[in-house]
């Protein structure tokens, strides 16, 4: 007897939902990053390894507006990549970006544990990104859209985000 599975959301809608999930998460970061860094910089600079203090010092003056510019740059790219996945069936970068987003959840969680305090983005990372990412990969693999092997092959394509995020932050500092 064949099992019939019905889902409340189509895969296409689930793919488009990526943009909403990303923005909800980044709204938390945009709203809280500036006041959080101002309030906690002196406390956290003493807790992190010296090599991290250089990076942290560079971002210690970031404003919410500057951070929003970086998010905007990512959002534009994510919109194109989401369109390619949802409407054209091209999943390479979509899978890569979602793999990075899933890993990003654990960096937020690790930062919170290490610093023993709230860090901007941790709440939406755990409550929104984590369940979304697990369900997205479950559905994409379960419905034969991609294989687990392809997920692992495509995941490194998400690393293209690193220079784009860095560019977005530099652009934010330059124009805001």
UniProtKB/TrEMBL annotation:
It holds the Pfam family HXXEE. The keyword Nucleotide-binding does not apply. The keyword Transmembrane helix applies. Keywords: Membrane, Transmembrane, Transmembrane helix. InterPro entries: HXXEE (IPR025671). It comes from the Bacteria. The chain crosses the membrane at residues 6-24, 67-85, 91-110, 122-141, 153-172. Coiled coil: none annotated. This is HXXEE domain-containing protein. It comes from Ferviditalea candida.
């Amino acid at each position: 007897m064949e099992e019939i599975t019905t889902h409340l959301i189509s895969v296409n809608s689930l793919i488009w939902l990526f943009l909403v999930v990303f923005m909800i998460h980044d709204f938390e970061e945009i709203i809280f990053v500036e006041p959080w860094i101002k309030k906690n910089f002196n406390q956290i600079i003493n807790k992190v390894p010296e090599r991290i203090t250089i990076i942290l010092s560079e971002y210690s003056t970031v404003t919410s507006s500057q951070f929003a510019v970086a998010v905007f740059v990512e959002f534009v790219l994510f919109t194109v990549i989401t369109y390619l996945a949802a409407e054209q069936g091209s999943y390479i970068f979509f899978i890569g970006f979602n793999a990075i987003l899933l890993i990003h959840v654990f960096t937020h969680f690790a930062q919170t544990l290490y610093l023993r305090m709230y860090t901007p983005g941790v709440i939406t990372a755990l409550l929104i990104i984590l369940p979304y990412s697990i369900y997205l990969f479950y559905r994409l693999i379960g419905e034969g859209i991609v294989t687990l092997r392809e997920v692992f092959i495509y995941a490194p394509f998400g690393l293209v985000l690193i220079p784009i995020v860095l560019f977005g932050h530099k652009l934010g500092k330059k124009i805001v």
